[in-house]
Specification:
The complex is a heterodimer.
Chain A (H helix, E strand, L loop, with lengths): L10 H15 L11 E2 L5 H14 L4 H9 L15 H9 L18 H60 L10 H22 L4 E3 L5 H9 L3 E3 L6 H7 L6 E3 L9 H11 L6 E8 L2 H8 L5 H10 L3 E7 L5 E9 L1
Parallel strand pairs in A: 2-3, 4-5
Antiparallel strand pairs in A: 5-7, 6-7
Helix pairs in contact in A: 4-5, 9-11
Chain B lengths: L4 E8 L5 H15 L3 E8 L9 E2 L9 E7 L6 H4 L6 E5 L17 H23 L6 E4 L2 H9 L5 E3 L22 E6 L8 H13 L4 E6 L6 H13 L6 E5 L3 H10 L2 E4 L8 H8 L4 E4 L4 H5 L4 E3 L4 H13 L1 H19 L3 H23 L1
The chains are: A alpha/beta, B alpha/beta.
Chain lengths: 337, 372
C-alpha cells in the first residue's frame, strides 16, 4: 500500500506504512492467492490438474457461478471498502506494544535484576496508562462504531443516488439530458477534452468563453476549473448568446440539439464569432438509431453533414471522442482551423 | 513429600465448550499423574464433577501450582500476585476483534452495542495478557500458532502442549459407500464471523448448481453472534439454498456424536483457529476433512485430511465432489486421518505436562530464591 501523493513524510503514507508493517507482522496469517491442496498420501499436482480440468469442462453459465462466488455477504466488507477501514483500525488499536526485552546493545547496562525492574516499571506504566485511558478506549470504540454506521449509510446513499441518477437520465428528466454509459467514461472523456483545451489556452494565453452543455456534467466540472466565464446553457437561446459575444478564443458548443435553428447554422455562427485561430470543441449528440434523438430533441443531427460543414471552413479534426458501446450519447469533436 | 497441588482457575466451566473440555481433560490427567488437582470456578460452578471441582478462592499454600486459562478473564491475578507459587498460563487464543466489527453495521442497536462490547472485551484480554507477560512463570500455547502469538505479546518463557481432547475411539465407520440421498457437508463450532460460514453456504450453492444433492449441517451455539446467524440465513436464502442449510444450534454430546456420524465430509473454512478441536473430532469419526489453511489448522491436521490454501469456492466444490465420488481417494484420506489420530492418541501428554509443571516450578523457585 502506498499513498498516491508520493510525498516524503505524508501522513497517509506513514499510516499505510504502519498497516504494511502490521500485515508483515501477521505474515503467518497471510492469505494465499492460488488454490493448492495438501495432504498426506495425496498427489497434489495430479488432483489440482484434475480439478482444473473439471472446472474447465463443467457446463455452467459463468454469470450464475459469478453470482454465487461474488455475492456480498457482510454489510460492509473490510476488504472492499477503500480508504478508512474501521475493522483494520480497531485491530491496529487493540494490538498493544509488547514489553521490551531490553536486548538491544544500547541497553547493555540494563541487565540482571535491573532488566527485570525495567520491565516491571514499563509494565506498570502501561497498566497505569491503560487505567487512565479506560474511558478513552470505550470512546474510541464508540467512534469506530459510528464510522462504520456512517460509512454504511454513505455507501447506501451513493447506491441510491446512482440508481436515481440512472433512472432520471433514462426516463424522467427533460430532453437535454442523455443516457451516459458510465460516469467513468464521461470523466475520462471530459479529462481528455479539458487537457486539450488547457493546452490551447496556455499557449494562446487568452481567456476563453466556455459554453457548458446541458447534461450538467461538463458544466459542473468546468466551474471547478475556474475558467473565466461560464455561460449556462439553460439560457436557452444560444444564437442570441453567440451573437452578443465578441470574437472568442474558444468555443465549446456542447449540445447542438439545443440549437433553435439548424445545426449547420450554428456552425456558421461559431466560425463567424470566433477568432481566426480559435479551436472549436463540439459536442454532438449521436445515436445509432434516430428515434430516441427525435423523441428527445425533435432534431436529427447528421454528423456527416457537420463534418462537411467544418471541411468547408478548412477546419481539421484533431481529436474525436465517442462512447463506444452506446446507443446514444455525445461525440466530442475538436477542430482547429 | 506432599504431592504438588495444581489449581486451575476459570471464571465459568461451560459444558461442551472447547476450553472447558480442555480444563476437564487436564484435570483428569493431572489427577491420574499423582497430583492433587482442583478447578476453581468463579461462577456457575457445577456442584460436583469427580469430587475435584472447588468453587473457592485459590489455595494459598506454597506447594500449589496455579494454572490460568486465557481467553477466560484472568480474575485471580490480583490474588495470586503475592503468592510465591508457580504460575502457568494456558493460551487458547483470542479471536481478533476485526472479525466482529463489520457486524455492527447491521441489526438493532442493542445487538450492535453488544458486538462492540464483545470486541472491546477481546481487546481487553489481549491488553491484559501483554501487561501480565512477566507475571507468569511459563506461558503455554495449545498450538505452535498460539505460542508464536505469546512470544509476540512479549512472553519470554513459552512452551507448547496440544489441547487435550477426549476423542471417540470406539466408533467404527462403515466404509461402504453411503446410500444417503444427499451429500452432507458438516461442520461444528460457534456460529461466529471468524468461522467464515458464508463460504460453506457458497460452496453448497455451487454444489447444488452442479447438480449435486448436497446439504449443509452445522452444529454450534448461535449466541452471542445472533446477527451473524441472521445474515447467514439471509445469504442462504439469496443463494436459494436455505432449505438445504441446517443450523442445529448447540448440541448435547449424544447429538453431537450423531451429527458427526451423519456427515459425508467435514468442512472448515475458518479464518482464525487457535487449535480447532472439531477437526480432530471429525477425524475420530472417520469423516474426511477439508480445511482452509489458516491459523493453527495446519498443525492440528498434521498432514491428514485435505488442506486447501485459498477460499476458492469453485475449486473447493470440485474437490468435494472428487472426495465424494472417488472411493479410493476418500479411503486414502481416511487412512491418513486414522494415522493422525494414532499419533494424537500416542502423544506423550502426561510426560509433557509433568515437564511443563516442573519447568514452571523450577523458574518460580529460582525467581523466589533471587528475591530472597
Amino acid at each position: 500500500m502506498s499513498c498516491i501523493c508520493n510525498q516524503a513524510g505524508c501522513f497517509t503514507s506513514r499510516v499505510h506504512l504502519r498497516i504494511d508493517r502490521k500485515i508483515f507482522l501477521f505474515s503467518f496469517e497471510t492469505v494465499a492467492t492460488e488454490f493448492h491442496i495438501e495432504g498426506a498420501g495425496i498427489d497434489s499436482d495430479v488432483i489440482e490438474k484434475e480439478i482444473e480440468e473439471k472446472v474447465a469442462s463443467r457446463n455452467y453459465h459463468p454469470d450464475e457461478v459469478a453470482r454465487i462466488t461474488m455475492l456480498d455477504f457482510m454489510p460492509v466488507s473490510p476488504a472492499k471498502t477503500a480508504g478508512f477501514d474501521p475493522s483494520e483500525t480497531a485491530e491496529l488499536f487493540e494490538r498493544p506494544a509488547p514489553l521490551p526485552q531490553f536486548n538491544s546493545p544500547k541497553f547493555r547496562y540494563i541487565k540482571g535484576p535491573l532488566r527485570v525492574l525495567a520491565r516491571k516499571i514499563f509494565s506498570m506504566l502501561v497498566a497505569i496508562h491503560d487505567k487512565f485511558q479506560e474511558n478513552k478506549v470505550q470512546a474510541f470504540y464508540n467512534v469506530v462504531h459510528e464510522l462504520i454506521v456512517v460509512q454504511h449509510r454513505h455507501k447506501r446513499l451513493e447506491e441510491q443516488i446512482h440508481f436515481l441518477m440512472k433512472r432520471s437520465l433514462n426516463e424522467e428528466l427533460p430532453a437535454a439530458h442523455r443516457t451516459l454509459t458510465s460516469t467513468e467514461e464521461v470523466r475520462s472523456l471530459y479529462e481528455n477534452v479539458m487537457l486539450r483545451i488547457r493546452n490551447y489556452s496556455h499557449t494562446k494565453n487568452e481567456e476563453c468563453l466556455l459554453l457548458g452543455d446541458a447534461s450538467g456534467y461538463f458544466k459542473i466540472n468546468m466551474r471547478q476549473e475556474g475558467w473565466s466565464r461560464i455561460q449556462s446553457p439553460l439560457q436557452d437561446d444560444y444564437s442570441t448568446l453567440l451573437m452578443q459575444a465578441d470574437k472568442l478564443s474558444l468555443v465549446i458548443h456542447a449540445d447542438l440539439s439545443l440549437w433553435t435553428g439548424k445545426p449547420q447554422g450554428a456552425i456558421d455562427l461559431m466560425f463567424e464569432k470566433t477568432k481566426d485561430d480559435a479551436p472549436i470543441v463540439l459536442c454532438v449528440p449521436v445515436a445509432k438509431q434516430d428515434e430516441p434523438l427525435k423523441r428527445n430533441y425533435g432534431v436529427t443531427v447528421d454528423t456527416s453533414l457537420l463534418e462537411e460543414k467544418f471541411k468547408f471552413y478548412n477546419a481539421t479534426l484533431i481529436e474525436k471522442y465517442t462512447f463506444p458501446n452506446d446507443a446514444e450519447g455525445f461525440a466530442v469533436y475538436l477542430y482547429q482551423r | 513429600m506432599q504431592p504438588l497441588v495444581i489449581c486451575q482457575h476459570v471464571d465459568e466451566l461451560k459444558p461442551n465448550d472447547g476450553v472447558g473440555e480442555s480444563i476437564r481433560s487436564l484435570h483428569r490427567l493431572l489427577h491420574s499423574s499423582g497430583y492433587r488437582s482442583y478447578i476453581s470456578v468463579l461462577k456457575n460452578a457445577p456442584l460436583h464433577e469427580g469430587g475435584h471441582i472447588r468453587n473457592a478462592a485459590p489455595l494459598k499454600e506454597k506447594s500449589v501450582c496455579h494454572i490460568l486459562h486465557a481467553p477466560s478473564p484472568l480474575y485471580p491475578l490480583l490474588f495470586l500476585k503475592h503468592v510465591h507459587a508457580p504460575r502457568i498460563l494456558f493460551y487458547h487464543n483470542v479471536t481478533p476483534s476485526y472479525f466482529f466489527t463489520p457486524l455492527t453495521c447491521t441489526g438493532d442497536e442493542p445487538q450492535k452495542r453488544m458486538i462492540l462490547d464483545l470486541a472491546h472485551g477481546q481487546t481487553s484480554i489481549r491488553r491484559k495478557l501483554v501487561q501480565t507477560s512477566d507475571f507468569f512463570h511459563l506461558a503455554v500455547g495449545v498450538s505452535n500458532f498460539n505460542r508464536k502469538e505469546l512470544i509476540e505479546m512479549g512472553f519470554a518463557r513459552t512452551d507448547y502442549l496440544p489441547n487435550i481432547v477426549a476423542l471417540n475411539k470406539t466408533f467404527v465407520h462403515n466404509l461402504k459407500e453411503s446410500h444417503r440421498p444427499h451429500l452432507i457437508l458438516g461442520s461444528t463450532g460457534r456460529v461466529a464471523p471468524n468461522k467464515n460460514l458464508e463460504s460453506h453456504i457458497r460452496l453448497l450453492a455451487l454444489l447444488r448448481k452442479f447438480g449435486v444433492p448436497a446439504r449443509l449441517h452445522h452444529a454450534g451455539s448461535i449466541e452471542p453472534y445472533r446477527e451473524y446467524f441472521n445474515l447467514l440465513n439471509r445469504f442462504a436464502s439469496a443463494l436459494g439454498v436455505q432449505e438445504d442449510t441446517l443450523f442445529y444450534g448447540k448440541l448435547t454430546p449424544k447429538e453431537l456424536e450423531r451429527h458427526y456420524q451423519s456427515m459425508d465430509i467435514y468442512l472448515s473454512m475458518s479464518l482464525h483457529e487457535g487449535f480447532s478441536i472439531p477437526l480432530l473430532e471429525a477425524m475420530s469419526y472417520h469423516v474426511p476433512v477439508v480445511a482452509l489453511d489458516r491459523g493453527a489448522v495446519r498443525e492440528t491436521m498434521d498432514g491428514a485430511g485435505v488442506l486447501i490454501s485459498d477460499d476458492d469456492p469453485l475449486r473447493t466444490a470440485e474437490l468435494i465432489i472428487k472426495i465424494h465420488e472417488d472411493k479410493n481417494f476418500r479411503h486414502n484420506i481416511l487412512k491418513h486421518q486414522s494415522e493422525r489420530m494414532n499419533r494424537y492418541h500416542h502423544y506423550p501428554f502426561r510426560s509433557e505436562l509433568v515437564r511443563i509443571i516442573e519447568r514452571a516450578k523450577e523458574i518460580s523457585d529460582h525467581s523466589f530464591n533471587k528475591q530472597i
